[in-house]
Amino acid sequence: MTTPLQLPVTVLTGFLGSGKTTLINHLLENYPGERIAIIENEFGAVGVDGGLLGQHSGIEVIELTNGCVCCSVRGELTEALKNLLEQRDAGQLNFDRLLLETTGLADPAPVIQTFFVDDILRERLQLDAIITLVDSEHAQKQLTEHRVAVSQVGFADRLILTKLDRIDSDAKTLLLERLRNINAKALVCEARHGKLEKAAWIGIQAFNMDDSFDLNGTFVASTAPSQAPTNFRPLNQTSKPLARSWNDDITSQVFETGEVDIKLIGAFMETAIEKYGNDMLRYKGILAIEGEPRRLIVQGVHKVVGFDYGTEWTAEESRKTLLVIIGRNLPVETLRNEFLATAVSNAVS
Ligand SMILES: Nc1nc2c(ncn2[C@@H]2O[C@H](COP(=O)(O)OP(=O)(O)OP(=O)(O)O)[C@@H](O)[C@H]2O)c(=O)[nH]1
């Protein structure tokens, strides 16, 4: 949970030209009440139209221009974040959330780690979500040619498809299939020239320990259904089989069983994270622990992991354990067998 002292941070990523700036501009135009600090990392370019920003008194824009935020300016990012917090504490700046737009060439991993590694930042900031924009027109090519584009999709809590006006429905179906193969956990929504409700990507609390797993095996929006934007949908399987012509090194694995033993599942998670954490981009599980009325929720990024108890299982629910791991070249069958060995009841029907 975000404590009163913690500020939420949204990391916005997506390959070059995927529409990040367009989306931010739409946010600023349509939600003028937002008090938001934007950190831009644009290889020296001014990403957001200065004239437009000038009209929004609640906006602070900090530009990191000495290179890519994921490598050379990582220290600069930490400093910029601390500076912002100091200025806010001193009453010089007034904002209640942060938005970090990474350059289209950035791998999100080191950026995300910044928020967990530094003690002050960990205490004062709460990562809200990683939002990845996908340029529907060019994504297939970018995913094939640029490893970083696959990584950006793999880390995402939300995928926002842009430029859908540029492709037909068959191409969209194929793209959704490929995205699902990489990241079955992320919800997908669509932005038309940046138009998207704020609730679809701001304040979604993806790093909170909630139980936003659909027990039918798909992920659902963490927002309550009544508040959820209408264009949310999980990446469902398409009805007809599609010829896969890609070979992405990052894929999603879904492991499922019935009740598990607390010690065995704990040891399994610990070993898996220790051995393969560097290749586990994101993972999330809802665990049904034998003898425990509540769900145990686990989620993490690489070797940063959190466990917490969620809501109780109701009498009507079947106690299922579900774990999704998005990773790079993982020994899937070994992990699956080790996971299944933690079960005390048979796999769910
Ligand atoms: N056809 C179409 N064009 C779009 C859409 N969304 C954004 N664009 C255009 O795509 C181009 C790139 O958009 P930007 O918002 O600058 O993309 P970016 O991700 O900030 O780009 P970089 O900063 O270079 O990584 C611009 O010309 C936008 O007008 C869309 O939904 N449809």
UniProtKB/TrEMBL annotation:
Tell me the GO molecular function terms: hydrolase activity; nucleotide binding
Record bears the keyword Nucleotide-binding: yes
PANTHER family on file: COBW DOMAIN-CONTAINING PROTEIN (PTHR13748:SF62), COBW-RELATED (PTHR13748)
Domain spans labelled CobW C-terminal:
258-341
Top-level lineage group: Bacteria
Q: Where are the transmembrane segments?
A: none
Q: CDD domains recorded for this chain?
A: CobW-like
Q: Which reaction does it catalyse?
A: GTP + H2O = GDP + phosphate + H(+)
Q: Which SUPFAM superfamilies match?
A: Hypothetical protein YjiA, C-terminal domain, P-loop containing nucleoside triphosphate hydrolases
Species assigned in the record: Limnobaculum xujianqingii
Swiss-Prot/TrEMBL keywords: Chaperone, Hydrolase, Nucleotide-binding
Sum up the protein's function in the record's words. Answer: Zinc chaperone that directly transfers zinc cofactor to target proteins, thereby activating them. Zinc is transferred from the CXCC motif in the GTPase domain to the zinc binding site in target proteins in a process requiring GTP hydrolysis.
Please give the InterPro entries that the UniProt record associates with this protein.
Answer: CobW-likC_sf, CobW-like_C, CobW/HypB/UreG_nucleotide-bd, P-loop_NTPase, Zinc-reg_GTPase_activator
The UniProt family comment states: Belongs to the SIMIBI class G3E GTPase family. ZNG1 subfamily.
- What range(s) does the CobW/HypB/UreG nucleotide-binding domain occupy? 8-188
Instruction: Quote the protein name from its UniProt record.
Output: GTP-binding protein
Q: Which GO terms describe its cellular component?
A: cytoplasm
